[in-house]
Amino acid sequence: MAYLTPLENTVIDAIVQGQPQSEQCLWDQLRQSELRSRERNGYGFFTNLLVPEHVPSCPNLKQTLLASGLVGGELCGFILWIKNGKIDFLEGYPLGGESWPTNESFEAINLNHAK
Questions:
Q1: Model-level pTM greater than 0.90?
Q2: In the chain, what are the domain boundaries?
Q3: Beta bridge partners of 3
Q4: What is the pLDDT of residues 17-70, one digit of tens each?
Q5: 3-state class of 97 per DSSP?
Q6: Radius of gyration of the chain from Cα atoms?
Q7: 85, 57 in Cβ contact below 8 A?
């Protein structure tokens, strides 16, 4: 999606590809979504998306889809929040750090599967 940063695009791509039963539905939502807002609080970020009402929900999705990866050399976590079967927002936060890395270069993003 053109409105997402390279990091946001890569994280969302990894998470969506990790949902084989809902992958097509999530891609349909993303293609029709737009950026509602982007918030940075120094500790992490929230990228709020708006999926139009007419776009179908994805059944049987968990409320949170998780991933992690090295960003600027620091381990960071990501949550793609789902509300009523639709993508709501992406959250990014450091795992063990005090603040979000100033350098957003990243290495491979990994899915975190709930046990």
A1: yes
A2: 6-112
A3: none
A4: 999 999 999 999 999 999 999 999 989 999 999 999 999 999 988 899 999 999
A5: coil
A6: 14
A7: yes
